[in-house]
# Entry
Amino acid sequence: MNPHTPYILVAYGTSIFIMLLIAVLPILRGRKLRQELRNRASVENQRHQ
Amino acid sequence: MTPTRKKRMTVVLLILLGVGIAAAIAMTALQENLLYFVSPSDVAADKMPAGRQFRLGGLVKDGSVVRANESLEIHFVVTDGPEDVAVVFNDILPDLFREGQGIIAIGALDTAGVFQADEVLAKHDEEYMPPEVADALEKTGHTVADQNAAAENKP
Amino acid sequence: MNPVMKFIHKTGSPAYFYWLSGRMIPWLWAIFAVLTIWGMYQAFFVAPTDYQQGESYRIIYIHVPAAWMSMMIYILMAIFGAIGLIWRIRIAEIFAVSSAPIGAAFALIALITGSIWGKPTWGTYWVWDARLTSQLVLFFLYLGVMGLHSAIDEPRKAARAAALLALVGVVNLPIIHFSVDWWNTLHQGTTVKIGGGSKMPNSMLIPLLVMAIATKFYYGAALLTRARNRLLDQDRRRGWVAKKIKEDQL
# Structure
């Protein structure tokens, strides 16, 4: 194995982890927020009927 | 643009200007401390006092590297062209260390004017190329530095 | 009203922005993925080894795009912030605030990968030279903008305070860029130059530029995702959100 391989793997591993974190967290948050808003709307609808 | 917006824009521009001037003044005042290393010419001119810790930067002079037989001790000369400084180091060198390489040595001058390095860092240049190209340049008698100089002299 | 302002006002309408960004995000992710896969393949299997640094130089393909992005995003954040401060356009404020975590991530990636690269090449993980220090300051500026924003409850006041700090920090950008020319640094000078004269053969340079473009699409997708969330959160009681829910378009 090339002596530099571990350095390259750690560098890319950390970078991919950070980029995934920054991309995925808001997607999950957005999904939760939309679900919450839809639920609230349907509860209010039932109350009106 | 409405007067309020014009006023806000002026405030924004004034902030940028003010901070810019402040930073410029601070940097001028700190110029000396922001220098990461001093060159052999600076050493020759300033006469850095013996025992005072500083960082010495320059090229490892061709043909100057002498390794001890039984220990890690290594002697070499750091040069910036006009001036030379002799360096002694007694630890593991970075992979990129070789003659002609830019390096930074951290340590202090002893009373004999020899730089006793505690740490040696290699400074690589902004040049990237495949090894075959570097070999080919070497064979035709051109060094990477020559090619750089040629590129810079181009109109 | 001139056409530029008209366009800004139209895209600034929350419902329209929400719809448009929703359509754009999947495309941005797709382009990012294609460019990244191609760029990484080139970077690892096609680009030659460096004559001096050997294989370790391949870290450049994440390090340099991340460092460029950390600076570009900061400039954009300050511009969005200034637009928000002067014209009080809410979507610009949201863009500025949403840019900060993405920029901070890129600044951190540049610092970490640079540090890992430094060990085999320089012989040290970290030195306090002008380039490394000013890049660290950039990372803390991002954290400062995020911290200040989250410290104020009222969203629009928070955005304006954060924008002011972002503007003040702009002074750091020329320092980062020119640090390698202005001072003796351990970090080497600029390799890639706009307008030719890059000190790298095309076989190494092209994957680097592809990765640099890929990260811009990443920023676009991540920014719009965050901006949509923020907009929806702020407008949860507004009419357009109720209408979208009724139409099942949320």
Observations:
- Chain C has a mean pLDDT of 92.
- Residues 153 and 159 of chain C are 10 Å apart (CA to CA).
